[in-house]
Amino acid sequence: MPLSDSPEHALSISAAVPVPSHELEVAQSLQELVATGLADLPAPGSGRTLERWQALARVGSQDLSLAKLFEGHTDALAIMRELGAPPVPPGSSWGMWAAEPPDAKVVFLPIGNDAEKSDADDGAHGIWLEGRKAWCSGARSVSHGLLTVWRSDGSGPFLASVAMRQPGVEVSKEVWPAIGMAASASVDVVFSSARAQLIGQAGAYLERPGFWHGGAGIAACWLGGAHSLAHALWQATSQVGQSDKHLLRHIALGKVDLALQHTAALLREAAAWIDAHPAADASALALRVRLSAEASAELVLTQTGRALGASPFCKDARFARMACDLPVYLRQSHAERDFAALGERAAAAELQSWAL
Question: What's the pLDDT score for residue 174?
């Protein structure tokens, strides 16, 4: 049985570093989703994009750390299919790691450049990885990673797939100190002559149509988290009478309803457009749904807190965790830079795009 198929695989990380119980639970949950086929989502642009995003939102409404790993796994599979990569090993779980902070870079050399390594050549796309990759969510538990890498001359980025269970891969043993999104465990990984495979050509990761499809899918995860908090407000409001306190809860619920309906409508519209134009530039759509989901989630966070007070934050563990995780996950947004990017696209577009 391959390691990734083993029920104990997700728990094996405990031998390397003390791991909080919630991180173990999230790792095990991802393995279960993979094993049952529930992580094999329709590809974006295949005619079932909305179904894909609905699955991301459902997982997000349950646990945002799990959604982070689930989204990364499903995004990696979609990217490799889009770029014509070989099929992934059955039962494998994947991380998708594309962060490029200036102090962490992974470079590659083709296998065969070194005489001592040439006998390990496993094809024209076989490479060795060297360097450190930061912000690798789920690296302590997934079986494989898909990551951006660079030539030693600085050209790229390329994508490489790498098996995590090999001598040349060292996952950071440092404690992951986060509170929000703690179970996503976005640690560093150091590669030292790690065997890997190139996926696609230089720049293919950023230039493919699916780059923006995947970016829009993250908004569905955020919306799922907001749904969870909004449901707590709805439950509290549906059981109350007509006092001033209850009126304020209804006001909050009205604001929440409008925000969530707005973002859901944009996501449905974007999914339909992507399915109708799978090869077209979806960057403006993706930026709109991300910014809308971010704004809606922030409104939900504010309104649920104002309407419900401290009680759910202190006495409801699931609510408290979601309220802690969601602001951290939202910071995957680029904030004002995304507004600027959307504004640039709006300035170059026809004004009729605002018409009904």
Answer: 78
Could you give the residue ranges of the DSSP H alpha helices within the chain? Answer: 21-35, 49-62, 64-82, 204-207, 210-238, 244-276, 283-308, 311-315, 317-330, 336-348
Domain end point (choices 175, 201, 227): 201
Q: How many domains does the chain have?
A: 2
Tell if the pTM clears 0.85, that is, is over it. yes
Name the 3-class secondary structure at 265: helix
Residue/partner pairs of 170-173 with CB below 8 Å, 24 or more apart: 171/13, 171/16, 171/17, 171/136, 171/139, 171/140, 172/139, 173/16, 173/17
pLDDT 10s digits, 162-180:
999 999 999 988 777 889 9
Question: Residue 106 phi/psi, 5° resolution?
Answer: -110, 125
Q: Tell me: do 153 and 188 sit in the same domain.
A: yes
As a whole number, mean pLDDT of residues 313-321 equals 96
Q: Which helix or strand (DSSP H or E) is residue 181 part of?
A: none
Task: Assign 139 to helix, strand or coil.
Answer: coil
Shared domain for 181 and 216, answered yes or no, is: no
Residue 268 lies in a domain: yes
